[in-house]
Amino acid sequence: MPASWRRTFLTLWLGCFITGLGFSMTMPFMALYIESFGHYSRTQINFYSGLAFSVTYFAQAVVSPYWGNLADRKGRKLMCLRASGVMTFTVFLTGLATNVYMIIFLRLLQGAFSGYINNSTAFMAGEAPKGHSGAIMSQMMTASVTGNLLGPMFGGAIAGIFGYRAPFMIFGVLMGIVFLMTLTTKEHFTPIPAKEMKPMKEVFAGLKNRRLIFFMFATTLLVQMSLMSISPIISLLVKQLMHGVGNISFVSGIVAAMPGFGTLLVASRLGNKMDEVGPLKILMLGLILATCLFIPMYFASSPVSLGGLRFALGMANAAMLPAVQTVLTISVPHEAFGRIFSWNQSFQAAGGMFGPMIGSAVSSIFSYQSVFLATSIFVFIDFLIVFSVRKMA
Length: 393
Hints:
Layout lengths: L2 H24 L3 H6 L6 H33 L1 H19 L5 H14 L2 H12 L5 H30 L2 H19 L16 H7 L3 H19 L5 H8 L6 H30 L1 H19 L5 H15 L3 H11 L5 H29 L4 H19 L5
Helix pairs in contact: 1-6, 1-7, 1-8, 3-4, 3-5, 3-16, 4-5, 4-6, 4-8, 6-7, 6-16, 7-12, 7-15, 10-15, 10-16, 10-17, 11-12, 12-13, 12-14, 13-14, 13-15, 13-17, 16-17
């Protein structure tokens, strides 16, 4: 492949890695950071930290279609610069916040202008050589996954030495570096004048397999919702399995990180296989495997068994969202990449917002383990949807 293409890929991969690293470096300590601003009750801490988490996804879901429209007119590189540039300031200022309301506002602003990882994926989808889309989408996923794995360790060490503000400030500086790195990339893009751009309604009407596209949006929503539904209760479940004895925070971190290790192990191979047999077959494999793995999690009796099952779940994860992105890449005209990927980002953000809410509700009414059964139902429904449209691709 051309040297310029490899350079662009490596730059965007590193940018996604830093974005994932910074996110996971700061979010685990959000509740503790908020707690440092005053004497809040447990209910208030849960509410404020949950709000600070969800407003970002809410803003993403609302504004992503607008940014997608602009991406198709101005290019994906500009959207990556917009996201990294604004995040440089919003994240850094979060480290300087003086009250919880400033944090919530900055998180809302961050969500409205974020999207580096998704726009980088759309960027590479447009630059990808023919026949390599699956491998490239899978490798782009490993960037943020690797960052998410390493982030809590770096964040924990930095927060322990310098306090909770420091990880946010360092993340802001790193995003500034990402902005400068992205500035050096070259995008092979021909701007489309606003007058010549088709309305989204016409774009969807012109798609030969628009039902497939809509089902991929639904898949993104359900997959992200299923993955995020477990987030609020992992540490609480681990505490229950350990009977409140031992280093619960450390063990919870390992259990939470296990899917990432599984994803890294097989992502590259699955990406190449996707290019050979087609993304929908790989997607169905991932969905049925995830369904089967969530069920035994309900019966997990120790952190070791839960961690092992989550490691296997990570392998299934590598077969899901990258497969959806590959389907979109090969099914959508190049001039509509930005808008289609942004709509997909909106559904992904909605899944990130609804997933924790559903997980918290189910665990409050029934038990922590019940979340796994509810999640398996959602994933199996998604499998049935994809199975019904498999011949459209």
